[in-house]
What we know:
Elements: H1 6-9, H2 22-34, E1 40-44, H3 51-63, H4 77-84, E2 90-94, H5 101-111, E3 120-125, H6 132-143, E4 149-155, H7 163-166, E5 170-173, H8 179-193, H9 201-209, H10 213-226, H11 234-245, H12 248-260, H13 265-283, H14 293-306, H15 308-321, H16 332-343, H17 351-362, H18 391-397, H19 402-409, H20 427-443, H21 471-479, H22 495-505, H23 510-524, H24 527-533, E6 537-542, E7 545-550, H25 553-560, H26 563-574, E8 580-584, H27 590-601, H28 625-632
Parallel strand pairs: 1-4, 1-5, 2-3, 3-4, 7-8
Antiparallel strand pairs: 6-7
Helix pairs in contact: 3-4, 5-6, 8-9, 9-10, 11-12, 12-16, 13-14, 13-15, 15-16, 18-19, 20-27, 23-26
Amino acid sequence: MTYQSLYRRYRPQRFAELRGQEHLVRALQHAVVADTVGHAYLFSGPRGTGKTSTARILAKVLNCADPQDGEPCGVCESCRSIELGTSFDVHELDAASNNGVEAIRDLIAKTAMGTPGRTKVYILDEVHMLSTAASNALLKTLEEPPPHVVFVLATTDPQKVLPTIRSRTQHYEVHLLSAEELTALAEFIIDDAALEVPPGAVDYVVRVGAGSARDMESALDQVVAAGAIPDDGDALDELVEALCERDTGRGLIAVDAAIAGGRGPRVLGELLIGRLRDVFLASMQADLSRLPDRDRARVADQAARLGPAATTRALEVLGEAFVGIQDAPDQRIPLEVALVRLTRPEADTSLAALADRITRLERGVPPVAPAISPAAPSPNAKGVAHPPTGGREAAASASEPAADVEVEAAPERAPASSSVDADERPASSARDALRATKQARSTTPVRAAAPPRSPSPPAPAFTPPAPHAAPAEEAASEAAPEPAVASAEPVAPEAPAAASTAASVGLPSRDELTLAWGDSVLASLPSRSKAFFAAGRFLDVSDGAAVFGLPNAPHMQRCEKGRAEVEAALSTHFGRPVPLRLAVDPDGGTASSAATTVADAAPVAEDQEIDLGELTDAPEAGATSVDRVRELFPGAELVDPA
């Protein structure tokens, strides 16, 4: 005897044998018993769930010689002929291959002909494949068929069926089977057919079936024929694990192994999308009863590690990758590129990748890049570390050359010739700065005199420090009280205090801010904010905010408009909110800054005379190109004002 596939041997022959479709069975049986069977039905649902089998059972009971409680007897001549496919009362038409108008016209012409049974049943499978002309030709007959004719339409894509056809039928949706129902069906078939299957075969066929009875039975046929469970689930598990662990190499190796095993990149990608859909449903606490218990536990664990946002992004990225995979020179490339984008968010510049990185930070996942140590000093352009406090005082106490002092101070303060505040430093301010410098040098070689904060005795004569002071002597000199002489450049807060303040509020230290500012944050700002904030520096971290110093109050007011952009850039770099408070830099003012810059860049000798009258104010900004041309060519006439 010729071997018959399991899905054909165990096709339901009675309503009681249909599994998971109680709503449909109840409605049809009640209609048969009450003699209220409609003239047209539409069954829709996934493949292998019993649409065509239900239509055949309905045809059997409508023509059965001895129906019992809405069930066919299964032994009469009509039931046997329908079961064998030789009945003249049942006509099946595959609309996928007979979708033309001529096939439908031939069907309509035969509806008026009589048959041996009581009811003539037409089963149109995949009715959504009918052409528009064929569907329109069917409409009139479908609405008012002969009294002995019943139409049963089946489709897996009901939204493609014309609304005018759907409105003329009773529409029933056929459901996927749950994992428990598929497991019970698989165990029944194995026991009834005395099949020898390896351990774990039931779980495998239920997972492959994914709610479809026919797919499950086909997978069981494959297991019986091979005598073992096909090893095809490892690649999918490896790919999902690679996404959960952000392991790019693991994912690429899994793709290569699956393709070497005979799976096409597109098929592998579709299976991966299907598995990720289960992970997404698990993260949304949706019903996964169609999966076995072991698979539900694994999917729930992967959903907890991957998260809803990352799962959604993975589905979107893979979906975009497979839009044009047929046109790709190598179909592996879109899949592999998608995996790299998903496992390495820092390599993806899309907003979705940035949102994924933010979500991981919110969930407490450490960033990829290691955090900067708070104790690490910020290097300058030459690789020399900044002192934690004012670099100028430390340089002066160590008798460093003036050029080195200027290089160390450069990362913390914009040059005096900055384009942002050039119009705020006219020659008159420079004259005042030079006068202050000369007055300061008359009292002390380094610091300019200023009104004292409180009455104090005159400052002692300045004594140059030793070239190389011992650490104990330096500590003693720092601990000793200084004379009450106000400095033109106030000393910045000590590093330990700043570090403790930053640690108390969870903010980066001043050194970390300065290093990040020069390395990446300033360059990432929009051009307008970059120009305004280039002239400032970080002064301190206190009161829950990073204090950013700017040269003067008008400059600070201009920068206030871009403060939110700087806060966003800092938060993105450090992975946590970094509030910013703008302040006037005591060292960045008009007079003191100019004086300090001139004194640092080119110290004036004691006996050098400077003619202040030679300094002139810079021209007013805002001159147009036409004005400049007129200045260069006196007496020129403007021909075209436009």
